[in-house]
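Hi all, long-time lurker, first post. I run a small reading group and we've been trying to get comfortable going from sequence to structure in the token notation. Rather than ask abstract questions, I figured I'd post a concrete chain and ask someone more experienced to write out its structure so we can walk through it together at our next meeting. Sequence below, copied exactly:
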Amino acid sequence: MERNATAVWNGTGKEGTGHLTTQSNFLSKAPYSFGSRFNDATGTNPEELVAAAHAGCFTMKLSFVLTAAGFTATELETTCTITLEDGAIISSHLTLKATIPIINKEQFDAAIADAKTNCPISKLYNTTITCEALLM
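-- Answer (accepted) --
Happy to help. Here is the structure in token form:
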């Protein structure tokens, strides 16, 4: 399986603007700029997209791990916070709220550890990955 996205940029790094389009066209010429990356201007940015990718990948992998262990989550909600410092992503922090009937703390922690280590996006990163989880 292969997936792709295209970035187009016009102008200088600080004054220029660009847009992103994904293969599925879910993002179609989504704007991004210096302002949307480093300030609060309208548009997306690479770090936000990386955070979405990690949150989505981890959550889906956790669902697969739970299913293999005989559990079905009622709901898994993951927020990912990417930290960019000095031109490098230095960490990805996952915050999970989970509702999973019948699971105990040890089983929950083991499933999280598996998903955190083995989701494809976690494997892609060369950074510190942490996870804070609350079983509802």
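A couple of things your group might point at:
The domain at 46-135 is CATH 3.30.300.20 (GMP Synthetase; Chain A, domain 3).
The chain has a mean pLDDT of 95.
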